[in-house]
From TrEMBL:
EC id: 1.3.3.11
Biological role: Ring cyclization and eight-electron oxidation of 3a-(2-amino-2-carboxyethyl)-4,5-dioxo-4,5,6,7,8,9-hexahydroquinoline-7,9-dicarboxylic-acid to PQQ.
Coiled coil: none
Pathway, per record: Cofactor biosynthesis; thiamine diphosphate biosynthesis; Cofactor biosynthesis; pyrroloquinoline quinone biosynthesis
Catalytic activity, as annotated: 6-(2-amino-2-carboxyethyl)-7,8-dioxo-1,2,3,4,7,8-hexahydroquinoline-2,4-dicarboxylate + 3 O2 = pyrroloquinoline quinone + 2 H2O2 + 2 H2O + H(+)
Domain Thiaminase-2/PQQC span(s) in chain numbering: 14-221
Name the record gives this protein: Pyrroloquinoline-quinone synthase
Origin organism lineage: Bacteria, Bacillati, Actinomycetota, Actinomycetes, Micromonosporales
Gene Ontology MF, one: pyrroloquinoline-quinone synthase activity
């Protein structure tokens, strides 16, 4: 039986998956370089919307599968971030504002007519993963948040520079999410390092984060193949 990694080795293995994150995807690089058409940006927003809609549910699944009340209480904040404390608030509402800012018809966003099949399969697979796997693996999958704050900040700067037609109020989601995800990443990493103690548990956590990176990459594959939307 393999010996478990030390805490530092385990953390390094998780952080070492950064090259698999979707910031290196050709579509993402084109998006940040100013090379996307308005239709392609709307396609990204529409497909990412489908991902956004499952985040509160996948976080609720982690809570449901976790036996530790202190973790459930802390993780509940993620549900509230996306759903808001009331209608018209939270990350979902901010994403609707982004759709308006890129002139994507709201009815088209809500009825998911522009969601690519590849996106749907990838996102549904991620939700199923979090509902059926041990909570530690689902938490480890969320560790893409280790890599996301800098990317979101770079996205806002790049979009302001290259896509001046996007209305400023559309940036609310990223501006609100960046400081929250920084704290979430620190908490989640400590949680996974603490509760994944055996070599098998550590390997499962690494594979979970790898899977999540592949989910995000699959979304961009689908968006890139789809091209723009009207």
């Amino acid at each position: 039986m393999a010996d478990p990694l030390t805490r530092d080795e385990f953390a390094a293995a998780l952080r070492g998956l950064a090259p698999r994150y979707w910031d290196r995807h050709p579509f993402h690089r084109r998006l940040h370089a100013g090379g996307c058409t308005p239709g392609e940006i709307r396609s990204w927003v529409a497909n990412r919307w489908y991902y956004q809609t499952i985040l509160a549910r996948k976080n609720a699944a982690i809570i449901a599968n976790c036996p530790l009340p202190e973790v459930r209480r802390r993780w509940l904040e993620r549900v509230t971030f996306h759903d808001g404390s009331r209608d018209g608030e939270g990350g979902t509402a901010d994403w609707l504002a982004l759709a308006d800012a890129v002139e994507l018809e709201r009815a088209a966003l809500l009825d998911e007519r522009h969601v690519a099949r590849g996106t749907r399969f990838a996102v549904d697979g991620y939700l199923h993963f979090c509902q059926t796997r041990p909570w530690t693996q689902a938490a480890a999958a969320a560790l893409t948040e280790l890599f996301s704050p800098e990317l979101m900040a770079a996205r806002v700067a790049a979009w302001r520079e290259h896509y001046d037609w996007i209305k400023p109020e559309g940036y609310a989601y990223f501006q609100n999410r960046i400081p929250v995800v920084q704290g979430d990443a620190t908490y989640t990493l400590d949680l996974v390092l603490t509760h994944c103690r055996t070599a098998d548990e550590q390997q499962a956590a690494i594979e979970a984060l790898t899977f999540k990176c592949d989910v995000l990459g699959a979304i961009l594959d689908a968006v890139d193949h789809q091209g723009g939307v009207p």
